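User: Hi! Is it possible to get a structure for several chains at once, not just one? Here's what I have:
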Amino acid sequence: MANPLDRIKPRVRGLKAYTLKPDRGAVKLNQNENPWGVPEAVRAETLRRMGRREWARYPDFVPAALHEKLAAFAGWRADGVVAGNGSNELIQATLMVTVGEGKRVLISEPTFALYRQVTTVLGGEVLSVPLDGALGFDVEALLEAIERDEPDVTILCSPNNPTGCRISEEELERLLTRAGGIVVIDEAYFEFSGRTVAPLLERHPNLAVFRTFSKAMALAGLRVGYLLAAPELAREVSKAVLPYNLNAFSQTAAEVAVELYDAELRPTVERVVAERERLFTELQNIGGLAPVRSCANFMVVRRRRTCASV
Amino acid sequence: MANPLDRIKPRVRGLKAYTLKPDRGAVKLNQNENPWGVPEAVRAETLRRMGRREWARYPDFVPAALHEKLAAFAGWRADGVVAGNGSNELIQATLMVTVGEGKRVLISEPTFALYRQVTTVLGGEVLSVPLDGALGFDVEALLEAIERDEPDVTILCSPNNPTGCRISEEELERLLTRAGGIVVIDEAYFEFSGRTVAPLLERHPNLAVFRTFSKAMALAGLRVGYLLAAPELAREVSKAVLPYNLNAFSQTAAEVAVELYDAELRPTVERVVAERERLFTELQNIGGLAPVRSCANFMVVRRRRTCASV
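Assistant: Yes, the chains can be modeled jointly so their relative placement is included. Here is the combined structure:
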């Protein structure tokens, strides 16, 4: 009898499943969530609205009300917004409509593991430029790779997971101008940096920006992300986004979180940033430690001494 | 300047987005949901459990507790269960790990539009066998296509959307024995048929069964589906399922729905089936109408008269 596993693409069979070991620390830090939890006002209002809704009915085909709110929140147009089941879904959808055998995706590692995983499942080739010695983006090497290898898609996480480095608007504009392909900036942690590349969307139709509700927005349990791009590009990516991808509860919670951001969530972001800077200074004062400046809600700390000298 | 849309796969660009016109009827029937809505006991218990949970934390990497409950519910093993963000996500994941350029997917149309949509996005070829004159599966033609074209994947919706026909265990076993590829049975409506092909999983490692919480289980708004397959096949499909794909709220609601199925949901299914049979008989008694027997919660009604004679 034929082995049905022979029908699985060889690249997929060779792939290790993306996994994460459960954390065992006294304080959970390994997923960079908002440590202050969901504000009670967001929780209560979401439960109130969901108490009135008919759960047995499909959610909106396209969550238009949420798209409108996200557009206002991000300073972009609603027809250039696509909400998803976590930004993971939008990473996958963007790669699904662009990547197949013979296509190339440029990333800068170490970074979020999913870019490589999904590209590989889809049969594309991953081109990887390492971060520089200071754990920042090596923009010159990225430019060189873009010109030499003409990647179909370039994905940078900025601020980068797990190093906290950020690409500046000027640097990104250089990449965008030279790139013939699509450039994705995953802004999962942008709230903690106080900056965004979203204003570049206006004059760069090859830019896509991904955002998430899992970090600053304190809704990791509910899985909401969104994409910002030119409407033409957003429309193509939407073709690989599943219908009814966003459940009614998460859609509702995301709307509430955006409405209450300034009153309830921004203060928690400000506390995280203040703590990060305080921690950076304190760590600098500890002999042998060299914290790396971070624009996110986590920080790499290097050891000054080599292993041999410890 | 290069056009970033040139990086979108030509097949995707040529594709019309899957859409659905909003219904405008006095009674909403177009999505085959459970018309009695979510039972109050399911709703209250879900809200109670979610009131105690920390929403800012990621959900389980793999929803193991739900997989255990679904395994017991379906009479299958937990390591052969994969829960998803609606069964749509599992359709997509199964096709992602099997389909690329040069791969073939056999379906029987008319049927659920997503099989064709996703296959096309992934660059595969759709082979379509029409339903027979009585709107049932043309099993001989399907067998012929399987032997002639050797599809990598065959997908049948049973009971079929939108006709309500069902493939029998004996017929399916003939397909499974002859197929070298994977055979998917989408059992979105199985509760209304009173039958399932899940017992065939034990001796057919090329069978995958998809289920959903959007129909009988009355949770369309929350997007939960699951796959049943041999553990080896389930593991490969999982590689294309996004991490944290199922949000905490939907996972909780699905657990509650399974726990309360016999007490709360099964009676609503029995009412739907009784109404379907009553309606069938009544429609038969109306001159000129020819209802088609259905195993689902909807029914095709044909007109006996030709257009010319009306």
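Residues 40-261 of chain A form a domain with the Aspartate Aminotransferase; domain 2 fold (CATH 3.40.640.10). Residues 66 and 251 of chain A are 7 Å apart (CA to CA).

User: Great, thank you!
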